[in-house]
Amino acid sequence: MASVDLIGIGKRFGAVDVLRDVTLRIADGEFLAILGPSGCGKSTLLRILAGLEGADRGEVRLGAERVDRLPPKARNLAMVFQSYALYPYMTVRQNIALPLEMRRLSALQRLPLLGRLLPGTQLRRRAIAEDVAAAAEPLQLTHLLDRRPAQLSGGQRQRVALARAMVRHPAAFLMDEPLSNLDARLRTEARAEIMALRQRLGATMLYVTHDQAEAMAMADRIAVMQGGRVLQLAPPQELYDEPASLEVARFVGSPPMNAIPARIGADGRIEAAGVSLPWRSGAAPGTPVTFGVRAEALVPAAQGLPARVERLERLGAEALLHCALPGSGAALVVRLDTAEAGAHPPGTTLRLMPARAVIFDAEGKRLPATRQQGAVTASSEPAYG
Amino acid sequence: MADRLGLLLRHALLLGGAAVMLAPFVLMLSISLKPPGEIFAPEFRLLPLQWAAVENYTAAFTKVPLLRFLLNGFIVTFCIFVAQAVTALPMAYALAKLRWRGRDTAFLLVLAALLVPPQVPAIPLYIALWQLDLLNTYAAIILPSTISVFGIFLMRQFFRTVPDDLIAAARMDGLGEFAIVWRIMLPTAAPALAAFGCLSFIWNWNEFFWPYIAVQDEHLMTPPLGIAFFSNAEAGTNWGALMAAATVTTAPLAIAFLLASRAFVRGVTMTGIK
After folding, report:
1. Separation of alpha carbons A36 and B240, rounded Å
2. Could you report the predicted ipTM of this complex, rounded to two decimals?
3. pLDDT beyond 50 at A384
4. With an 8 Å Cβ cutoff, are A81 and B168 in contact?
5. For chain B, how many structural domains are there in total?
6. Distant-in-sequence contacts of B251-255, Cβ < 8 A, 24+ apart
7. Cβ of B272 and A150 within 8 Å?
8. A108 pLDDT exceeds 90?
9. What is the mean pLDDT of residues A58-63?
10. Is B139 within a domain?
């Protein structure tokens, strides 16, 4: 196991800057998720770390060693691919054994027939067989060892890919959307398997995904990427509660954070939809801002933001109220108990009090803000928008 | 009704085409069973009145060293195929999966080489082999065919369908580029390679032009040369025996073709692998 450092990585494909000065430091044994929409450069970053792609600028370090000039096989990293990339004509056993054979047997010893006669080959092959069995057992692959990938289900193939990655105890695991080809139920199971694997091996893991729920559920820290840059690097809860920008706020969490157009009132408080909210920011009065509030942080109250209910979405234990603000017409999603949501049928209007909120400036950058004692009052200015 | 008629017409057309294709082979087989007197009889019969199969086939194997010709054919086609596979697989891999300056130009050259008729380089090749003192050897037949641009093209097209992740996984697992060619690409491409092998075999087994230039010794002759030699030696009198020899040398081709069709089917079923 080792720490992983990516320092100032830059990469261009033709005229496109895929990665711009990306720096990530992953501690030994840490689980870091790289989260971003497709095309944000996250997979390229992983491939640069693996050595499958060269960086134009920057350094890659594994532990204390600089590895950017080393070929993939000299880096001692293992990768799990979205397509699993199992060798189709090899059995599960041969698939898992191949990385060990390449490392422990000499070129002569790997020769068919002749290799078996060389001194030491039998002994090493036996050790490899034992390691393959040890890797297969916790992933429930023992009874599948003689099958070929085409004879396996998606979940089984995914476990074979995990076994092939862990069998040689690499310095770190790289995972490139390993669960996106699985259905929802299998995905939850596979998540648990990866977490168990990580617990058992104490391994450093880099996990690339576009699914924020996956990243939130598993990672110690999440790096949110967009347009070849890391927007924010933080533990999941911090990312959720304290997003550094509107982009991060809208990308993390489902439903995405509500973004309410607002501005700083004459008294320094935030004004939105014709009401003055008890938040204060350092910005000058009149500055347009975005008032960000999570769906579950909006509570029906006697006073607050007026919202017209347009649609009710029942999810079982809870429900989502899709509302519109009068004036600006900005959409607002409120997460409530199913019973409580039933009290607000579509067409009615309710008032919502934000329990927590974050403020962004016009460029989407987070502004420092403080919550104040005090109630929601009617705005001193006419309704916004 | 119109559908049925169309179907009938299509099948009639196909049957007619098949009959035209098969007629020479049927004729060859038929003549190889007849005594000389019946071959030029005015009325045509598919089967002889008086069977002469034993006489004709015995003559084919005894008047000329037919077994030797067959053996030569196998040696030459096998060596050529092995050499073509050994050169075509790494080249196809480099053209399909590696990124390097000039790759597209190199591929254009491969395509251009497909257009060159084999007669064009015959004289330079002959002079080169003469200077190397290799004329009238197996090497003289084999060497000019060791690189098949068609094979490179065919395997390159197949390799392009192999997912890049598979190669990336192999590199992570510690395989070098040549190990990837032999251990990952070759088994994946086995059906395509088998199909190419059958085409290469048929082509080189039938090749007359180059072996006719390159060898003179009877014991080095390939089957088509042997047939020509036979017709000369027998002065065109024993048609039955000549057709028997032709039938014997064509048989491996028919078998190769049957194997090829099986390989094609296997190739289709292999694409189910993700």
Report:
1. 78
2. 0.84
3. no
4. yes
5. 1
6. B252/B70, B252/B73, B252/B74, B252/B201, B252/B205, B253/B201, B253/B202, B253/B205, B253/B206
7. yes
8. no
9. 92
10. yes
* Contact with chain A for residue B163, Cβ under 8 A: yes
Q: Which domains does chain A have, with CATH numbers?
A: 4-246 (3.40.50.300), 255-378 (2.40.50.140)
Shortest CA gap A82–chain B (Å)? 9
Domain that holds residue B217: 64-270
On whether residue B249 sits in a domain, the answer given is yes
Is B112 within a domain? Answer: yes
Inter-chain touch B172–A83, beta carbons under 8 Å: no
CB B69 within 8 A of CB B222: yes
Q: Are B211 and A112 in contact (CB under 8 A)?
A: no
Percent of chain A exceeding pLDDT 70 equals 97
Q: What is the pLDDT along chain B (274 residues), one digit of tens a residue?
A: 678 889 999 999 999 999 999 999 999 999 999 888 888 888 888 888 888 888 889 888 888 888 999 999 999 999 999 999 999 999 999 999 999 999 999 999 999 999 998 889 999 999 999 999 999 999 999 999 999 999 999 899 889 989 999 999 999 999 999 999 999 999 888 888 888 888 898 899 999 999 999 998 888 999 999 888 877 765 566 888 888 989 999 988 888 777 777 766 665 455 433 3
Residues on chain A bordering chain B, Cβ-to-Cβ distance under 8 angstroms: 47, 50-52, 71-73, 77-79, 81-90, 98-99, 102-103, 149-150, 157, 164
Q: A284: helix, coil or strand?
A: coil
Q: Which of B172, B185, B271 to mutate to test the interface with A (most CBs of A within 10 A)?
A: B172
Query: Which tokens is A46 given?
Result: 């992983």
Please indicate whether, in this complex, the C-beta atoms of A88 and B188 are within 8 angstroms of each other.
Answer: yes
For every residue of B126-153, DSSP letters joined together read HHHHHHTT-TTSHHHHHGGGS--HHHHH
CATH of the domain at B191: 1.10.3720.10
End-to-end CA distance of chain B: 43
d(CA A247, CA A253): 12
